[in-house]
Structure formats: C-alpha cells, structure tokens
Amino acid sequence: MVQPGLDQMLHDPRILLQRVVLDAQTGERDQAEFHLDLMEQIAQRAASGANTPNALLAYVAPVAKYIFGALRQPEMGESSITTVLSSPVDIPFFSTFARIGASLSAAMEKDAEAASAQYTVLCSSNARMFMFTSLDRVLGLLAGTMGNLDNAVAHFENGRGYCRESGYLPELAWTCHDHAAVLLELGPRRDRSKATALLDECLSIASELGMSPLMAKAAAVQEVIGAGPGRSTSYPGGLSLREIEVLTHLAQGRTNREIARDLVLSERTVQRHISNIYTKINVRNRAEATTFALNQLPS
To answer: pTM to 2 decimals?
Structure first.
C-alpha cells in the first residue's frame, strides 16, 4: 500500500517515512537511504523549527540507523532533532518524534547523560506506541544505557506484553531482541535460558516477516550466549563483546574509519567505544590499548 502512495506523493514525508521503515526492516538499505535522502532534502527546504518534515526525519533516521547499525550519512537526522527540540514552540506531537530519535541515538552512542535527559521526559508519557515504535522499548534502551538494568528489564517486559497483546509483531520482535541483550549484561544474575527463549521468539517473528537485519542481530546475540550454559561470556577488563571487537581491530592498526567500515558503525560510535575501552582497562592511548590486547585477548 505504500508504493502507490509514494508514486502519487513522492515528496510527502509522511509517505516516505513509511517506505524508509519498510525498506529498513526488510534489509533494503539502498532504497531506505535513497528515501531518507529525499526526506532530508524536503526538511532542508522547509521552514526551520518544529514542523512535519523535521519531526519525521528526526524520528525515522535514527530508527533506520538502529536497524542497520550505521547509515551512509552518520549524522542524518541530528540537525532535525536539534531543530525540533530547540523550537520556542513546543508541539508535543512533533517533539515526541524528535525525542524518540534522540533516545535511539543516545542508546547507540552509549551516551548516559543524553539518555537520562530523554528518559525523564518520556517516562511522563501515557503513550505505549508512537508511530512504529514501542515507548516501553525506548525506555528500556534508555534505562540500559544509563546502567539501570533492572529498570530496563521491567520496561522490556511491559513492552513485550503490550506488543503481543496488541499484535505489533515487528516491535515485539525488536523488544525480544533488546530484552535478551540486556539480560546478558546482568553479570552473575544473567538468565541465559530466558535470553535464549526471547531470541527464539524474535527470530521466529523476524523470519516470518522477512526482517533480515534483525535476524542478523539476533544471531549475533545467540553467539554471545554460546552453545551451553557453562560457556562464559565475561571478557578481560569488563569489556563488552562489541568493545572486544573494536579493541581487536584497533590492535591490528586499523583507523577509526576502517573500524567503522568493518563493523558497520559510525565513526562517532567507534570513538565512543574506544573512550569506554580506555576507561575500563585504564589506558591512555592506542599503544597501551594494543599492549593490553596482545597480553589479554586470545590470539
């Protein structure tokens, strides 16, 4: 139903948003980025401030980036988020679009301060779904980014129940994935069996709906869980699996740009991972981080 509307209204951001989400969920990266580019052009031609083109781009660019892991233009949508949220006229409908986008960006960048700011505002909302996104899932991602893992689990539980009851299958699948991922961060309290069940449900839905990017992400989390309950997923220095991947590439002499390309991340995300790595393993530069990697990581 989206394509006929798109043919008739090629420059309507409301139609383009639906196409971007559909393309992203099904792994059509080139089409998704093409339609994002159209939305950005429309937003640039529009008047500055809180308006439909800016609000929709502020929302859907981070949604697509979260699905794919990175976009060709890493900063896509950020100026629209700033424009909407800094507008002297607060239109809740528009600002919620921007806050969801800002929340997804904070989660992807592991920015606890930005996550806290959005969490405080979105917690006061009575909405459960906004456009294609579960607010419970967004709150779970924000709480996890802030380090409040128990709160994150509670939000994901709420989101799963609501999405299942309401039939929002794509969001149910994503909530299962994000819930499983945060369960694995609970240290000694991690629940592997529950995480496995969540991923099984996620993959069942994603396979049925053809959500190929989510299928790949869920498979990656399954690798973290491993083949059995005795397999340890703790890494030297308290690093996460993604940080281990970044550190391994860094120790091989890769630049931030090369690491971003290889791991399908933005350069900003790579830099944030590197900063977190330095803090966790108590080093000051790449040379010291490389020495740590050579001594502590398996060859």
So the answer is: 0.74
